[in-house]
Specification:
α3 packs parallel to α9 and α3 crosses α11. A hairpin with a 2-residue loop joins β2 and β3. With 236 residues, the chain is mainly α. It has 2 domains: 31 residues; 201 residues, Biosynthetic peptidoglycan transglycosylase-like (Penicillin binding protein transpeptidase fold), CATH 1.10.3810.10. A 3-stranded mixed beta sheet has the order 1-3-2. The radius of gyration is 20 Å and the shape is globular. The chain is built from 11 helices and 3 strands.
């Protein structure tokens, strides 16, 4: 009987902690609809890992529409249409990774990348992926596309110790993010798959080559009314 009583007390305490944590994370998600995260796990890793932390959060209307369109063109062309996940692209990535395990390809949408970079840690474990699914759906429901894109462009790593559009624009082009040209935006977007490897300054061969593909996709996507609505939105 004593053991049973102890088990019941432990279970009640664990349940109480779980409920408190669930409510806390829900409040945090809702709060981030209007404020930017104080810091992320990835940013802390960069800071304590010796890469430093260059970051300057700005409002969505202080980021050039060129950059918004460039990252959609480069990272997630179905961003305006999906509910957080591009199932076809995920399947393609899984098939590719099975055939070439030494050369992994990601299938994450902008929504997934935002969820991972704001709430989670880097890595490929199934536990992290499970949390990523949850947070992706939550921000799709609570934030909406315009806010997701704004947060993404403020928290994503864009170089060694460089996070967000404003820090990247100042570091690479000595200008605010609002004034990025189409070519400059395409270069930043081209580096996103691996910003420490595909450098903008100095300009890597990969970025030099990919920027022209990104610009071509931008010219095609800018005619899409749903994408245009997201890119030109001023949610803040």
């Amino acid at each position: 009987m004593k053991r049973k009583g102890l088990f019941v007390r432990i279970w009640r305490r664990v349940k109480r902690i779980f409920i408190i944590l669930f409510i806390a994370q829900l409040i945090y998600i809702v709060a981030l609809k209007w404020i930017y995260p104080p810091i992320t796990i990835t940013q802390m890793g960069s800071l304590f890992g010796g890469y430093g932390l260059k970051r300057d959060y700005v409002a969505a209307n202080e980021i050039s529409p060129n950059l918004k369109l460039a990252v959609i063109a480069s990272e997630d062309q179905l961003f305006a249409d999906h509910g957080g996940f591009d199932v076809k692209n995920i399947k393609k990535a899984m098939e590719h990774n099975e055939k070439k395990p030494g050369k992994l390809r990601g299938g994450s949408t902008i929504s997934q990348q935002t969820a991972k970079n704001v709430f989670l840690w880097q890595g490929r474990s199934w536990i992290r992926k499970g949390f990523e699914v949850y947070f992706t759906k939550m921000i799709e429901w609570i934030w909406g596309k315009e806010r997701i894109l704004a947060v993404y462009l403020n928290v994503i790593e864009m170089g060694e110790g460089v996070f967000g559009a404003e820090a990247a624009s100042q570091a690479y082009f000595n200008k605010p993010a609002a004034k990025l040209t189409k070519m400059q935006a395409a270069r930043i977007a081209s580096a996103l798959p691996h910003p420490k490897k595909y450098t903008i300054k100095p300009l890597s061969a990969y970025v030099l080559k990919r920027q022209f593909w990104v610009i071509k996709q931008m010219n095609f996507l800018k005619r899409d009314t749903e994408i245009k609505k997201i890119v030109e939105a001023r949610p803040e």
